[in-house]
Amino acid sequence: MNRFRIFILCFACFAAATGSGAESNLPVLEIQTTKEIGSEPRVPCTVRMVSSKQIKDGNSDLLRGQIRFRGASSQGYDKKSLAFKLDESTRWLGLQKDRDWVLNAAFVDCSMMRHKLSYDLFQSLSVDGAKRFASSSRFVEVNLNGRYHGVYLLMERVERSLLGLQRFNSRNNRHAVIYKAIDHGADFQQLGHGAYEQHEPEPEELEYWSPLEELNQFVSQAPNSKFFDAKSGIATRVDVDNAIDFHLLLLLTSNMDGYDKNFVIARDAPTAAMQQPRFFFVPWDYDATFGRNWEGSVVEPREWLSNHLFDRLLSNRTYQQKYAARWKELRKKQFSVENISRMIDENAQTLGAAATRNERRWKGSIDPNSGELTFAEDLKQMKAWVAARTKWLDAEIGRRTGR
């Protein structure tokens, strides 16, 4: 069956499922399962991506895999996030070729763009030799078992190839690592690794906690003389410039759930050229941002967020100067109110009529903390909140750094 025929059939399914006579302005992901989806185990599924006329890039082949619900508290929502593993790797919509994909439901995020906006902002801070890694994503509409299921954000999973890390080699003694903070104990003040999941190496291949445990011990217990030592201190263990950018993104977005939980920290394996690779941060789970908390409630723009690592760094005068200078630099461009408003408008334009279809599909199901907030109202509130937030941070960062 040729791709044009596939498109016509899936468009007919989409129109029937949504009750609309118009083509989707977004790519449509068709998912079919024969068993009820749960959190575990995964159940078999077939998946097909059909591009719209506006977005031609896509693989419209019928793919097989397994699917499950993902998330923790978000599994209690009517519209649940999904994760699926395909039998074969595929490349969709210009994203990285992979088998593992995330479909974020953004159920309490009426804008449906807080994740994408945050990750795109962090990526925009990259310069040559200092890439800021984050999941790339695309808006799609989903039909699940023939029924319209709304707008989702198709996201890359944060894993080894995305971060450019070396493959696991069992013959080596030291390895590339990825750890995900899953509990509020990930504040760099606790010993051990109890607040984290290991994602690289695959735990089935090797449980490998020593790099993280050594970092937590150093940050929590090293005296200042060792912590800031130029030859063996924190700057030889953590990419400080990356840490600054990560903390500033956290503050800009006011991620209430992300300073001691819900982030990724990674480090490459040592090589002859890089004997002591440094840890770096990768943002993850940014729905509790831009004026809303994880359950949809309002967050005021005046709130400082930090953890023990960032507190220790900000106690140093040299670091304070670098931190303040970076904030002022970003405020002129990436973190300007004008740039963020432009990004919000561009995402809204991409969503187009799909935002209305999603709103209609899930009307009456949104968490009461979000009230009857509409897509348009949320965008307006986000823009006003960003203006208030950046104004407060200009003064607060200046006060904390003496700049």
Characterization of this structure:
The chain is α+β, with helices and mostly antiparallel strands. It folds into 2 domains: 3-125 and 137-160, no CATH class; 166-401, Orthogonal Bundle (Phosphatidylinositol 3-kinase Catalytic Subunit, Chain A, Domain 5), CATH 1.10.1070. The protein has helices at 3-18, 114-123, 160-163, 210-221, 224-227, 240-253, 308-314, 317-331, 337-351, 353-361, 375-401; strands at residues 28-33, 43-50, 63-69, 82-90, 98-104, 137-144, 147-156, 177-181, 196-200, 263-267, 280-283. The strands form 2 sheets. A 7-stranded mixed β-barrel has the order 1-2-3-4-5-7-6. α8 packs antiparallel against α11 (375-401) and α9 (337-351) packs antiparallel against α11. The longest helix is centred in the C-terminal third of the chain and has 27 residues, at 375-401. The N and C termini lie far apart (65 Å). Residues 1-12 have low confidence and may be disordered.
